[in-house]
Design brief:
It is built from 5 helices and no strands. It has 127 residues and is mainly α. The protein has one domain. Helix 1 packs antiparallel against helix 5, helix 3 runs antiparallel to helix 4 and helix 4 runs antiparallel to helix 5.
């Protein structure tokens, strides 16, 4: 396996760890959860899906034979990235309006780390 393929996988573990922490510390009110708790839960789900889409795109771009990101991505990847950006925005808004300060901090850390890691991977793997 090429070392370039391992770069996104290893670096994306930091934002994934933030999401995992957010999921563990999320507010759990079993009987009739409030709207803010539901918003937090939806924000976490949106963040996980966005993270998965970004991870697949970055790993695909760094795959053997691709040589990184020397040219713009194909149309399906552009659509997936647009959906991931929309989900990322939903996750950030959900963290702002959701409930549970620990979860909100973990989602904020995920958002910051995801942007830094994503752009860092693209810059490092660009020919």
């Amino acid at each position: 396996m090429d070392r370039l393929v391992l770069l996104p996988v290893i670096l994306l573990m930091l934002p994934v760890a933030c999401l995992w922490t957010a999921w563990i510390v999320r507010p759990r009110k079993v009987i009739s959860p409030s709207v803010r708790i539901k918003i937090t839960r939806l924000a976490l789900i949106a963040a996980f899906v966005a993270m998965f889409a970004n991870g697949v795109f970055l790993t695909h771009g760094a795959a053997v034979g691709r040589g990184g990101f020397p040219e713009p991505p194909e149309e399906p990847w552009v659509a997936i990235n647009l959906v991931a950006v929309a989900l990322w925005a939903c996750a950030v808004l959900g963290a702002i309006f959701g409930k549970g300060w620990k979860t909100r901090i973990a989602i904020a850390a995920w958002a910051i780390l995801a942007v830094v890691v994503d752009y860092g991977i693209i810059i490092v793997t660009k020919d």
